[in-house]
Amino acid sequence: MVRVVVDAMGGDEGPKAVLEGVERALAADEDLTVVVAGNEDVVVPFCAKHARTEALVTTEVIEMAEHPTAAVRAKRDSSIVRGCRAVRSGDADAFFSPGSTGAILAAGTLVVGRVKGVARAALATAMPGVNGHMTTFLDLGANADCTPEMIVQFARMGTAYAQIVLGVDDPTVGLLNNGTEDTKGSEAALARHEALAAAEGINFSGNCEGRDILTGPIDVIVTDGFTGNVALKTVEGTAKFIVAALKAEGAKSKRAGLGALMVKPALKGVASLLSGDAYGGAALLGLKAPVLVGHGATNPEAIMNGTLTAARCVRQDLCGRLAQAIASAK
């Protein structure tokens, strides 16, 4: 029985959405136990009514606007810190939260701990693509500045994630750049390209461009956290703009309005893919146990999928395989 801690206090939608997502996850996976972390009045009544749940009562909540590291150190009885402690002590196998990304990163690193040999943990997610193709994209914001050696580690971790979560046998790896030619890019990009090309055990296909994140055939795309976060937020913003623009055009005439109404279901599906709900958010790769970060404005479906993905990572030994990949590369 896999035990996943879910932070009931994280997210903009409140505990109700989280608890509904946990309920769905339990229904979808009969070999799953969920340790629900949060305020007593939230988690105790819920766990009393649901089998295969346990209440982890906490008294503090880390808010989105708080300084991540300071909050993790000050609020030791928060749902994020206590959840990560449960994983470190062996009382749970994985942790999932739609709370503060920075706080989860800090708690994951300080409490759960990094795999031996990993310089920095990285945030990775599965991006949708053409004809159902999914691309593992990292780093999404955990590390603004990255050395070539860190990028190589991200490639190894992203490869393992693509194999385990997405089922890709031999993932190709691309380096995000401003052109596909080997000679393109800044000095940092050229150094990263050289390091990836020389690395053993990585199916490196060369440079790729921003458009390849959603439309290219590459399985894993690596970059630094600054660039990755900007790219991810650009994709999300573009999706919102398209939906808003279509609504505005639909309001201009009855004919346009009818057309907008007809494509509305398809647009919702595309928006759901771009939101990351299908996999519950982003995985913090490089830690000793699975830690997943959901979107702040998440919904029950994303909570369910994030919880199920955490359980899948445990069953398929994502962290162990990551550790093996890092150790064998030395």
In words, what does this structure look like?
- By secondary structure, the protein is α/β, with parallel strands linked by helices.
- It has 2 domains: 1-118 and 286-317, Isopropylmalate Dehydrogenase, CATH 3.40.718.10; 124-276, 3-Layer(aba) Sandwich (Isopropylmalate Dehydrogenase).
- Helices cover 49% and strands 17% of the residues.
- The chain contains 12 helices and 11 strands.
- The protein has helices at 15-28, 40-49, 68-74, 79-89, 101-112, 148-165, 187-198, 212-215, 225-250, 254-275, 300-315, 318-328; strands at residues 2-7, 32-38, 53-57, 94-97, 122-128, 134-138, 172-176, 203-208, 220-222, 282-285, 291-293.
- It has an 11-stranded mixed sheet with strand order 3-2-1-4-11-10-5-6-9-7-8, sandwiched between helices.
- Strand 7, helix 7 and strand 8 (203-208) form a beta-alpha-beta unit.
- The longest helix is centred in the last third of the chain and has 26 residues, at 225-250.
- The radius of gyration is 20 Å and the shape is globular.
- The model has no long low-confidence stretch (mean pLDDT 90).
